[in-house]
Amino acid sequence: MQTETSASPLVVFRTGFGLMMLVGIVRFWAYGWIDKLYIQPDFHFSYRYFEWVRPLGQFTYLLFLVAGLAALCIMIGYRYRLAMVAFFLSFTYIELMDKTTYLNHYYFISLFSLLLCFIPIPAGWAGARGCKVDRGYIRVLQVFVAVVYCYAGLAKLNSDWLLEAQPLAIWLPAKYSVPLLGDLLQQRWVHYAFAWGGAAYDLAIPFLLWWRPTRVLAFVLVVVFHVLTRVLFPIGMFPYIMIVSALIFFGPEVHDRILGGLAQIGGGWDQRFRDGGRGPTQGVGGRVAITGILAFHLLFPLRHLLHSGEVFWTEAGYRFSWRVMLMEKAGVATFTVRDRASERRVVVDNREFLTVFQEKQMATQPDFLLQYAHYLADHFRQRGFAEPAVYVDSYVALNGRLSQRYVNPKIDLAAVDTDTPVTQWLMPFNDTIYEL
Q1: How confident is the model at residue 416 (pLDDT cuts 50, 70, 90)?
Q2: Do 16 and 96 sit in the same domain of this protein?
């Protein structure tokens, strides 16, 4: 059985991935988000076990510069292995600086770039066209992309999404100004069509891309679906990243034509492998690492099964599980700090410590609420409170339901350990969301 194939699909993927990352970094910088999200705030919500990852002040710009230069090197194939490692480390550090900015596709990029550190891809464009690689590496990338779609589709098989078309029924009517579609998006049947169509798309598209007779049609669906989601929702570079990722399912003949065009643009500067040669190889250690990353990719999204309570309410295991655009939560949280020793009491103005964006995220996510409460306890302890206790009066509305009390107002959050299950200090969810 032939195990080698053209390296062209990997080279095209490497080029597209590097381009998307470079555009994303430049876009983030140009919009002023580095300063707004990482330098201006005095307080940052850190991930558990990564509390040591903090913004670097003005040196944060240098971190983004490293990521951008690494992405450029990945795109053109210059010192690919070193560039990919540098990109993974710098981008992941950026992602971990503040979980307020968490997005599914940031996690996608971090995990994917870690995987790519172990995928041997020839450098350049022109010289790489004749290289051969183990076809298993192409399969690995296809499986990685397919897992994302399948988990996203399975997560949509819940009663809120399928029976109530939530949260699309909240979001789509607000898009009345979209040309041609604005009036249509007010119709209830359209909300259901988007909900059921989105679930069917996520579950079917990997298999349609894998099967050669439906591959071209599937790619057209990928483009239409992701362009439409980009028009309707502010989700940044994710649609374009998924469009580029879908190219990995095409055969070498398609990628050879793409590389031919890139080679003409490059003018042959990148000749570094002879036609018919073999691309870089990977040892046993690299293959073990690839297997471990794929296993993590498959298992980590299932960790919510280890927790009790409604995952939409507790959010235990919600992040990093490809639950894409399934939830609309709005809330308000008012904190009171009381000194048990003196009975002094202060009602906290959240804007004194948080940005508007941070406050919005904090009000509906349990780990944010607990981390902020501990921060307030430390802050007021430094201001003379001998035994600060922190209570929160909070209400949250989930997917169009009436708001209900979120945190037990009688519990001192400053005394709650991060290991304590959230169900012990959150109020119970007064409804049921049925999932597959």
Answers
A1: very high
A2: yes
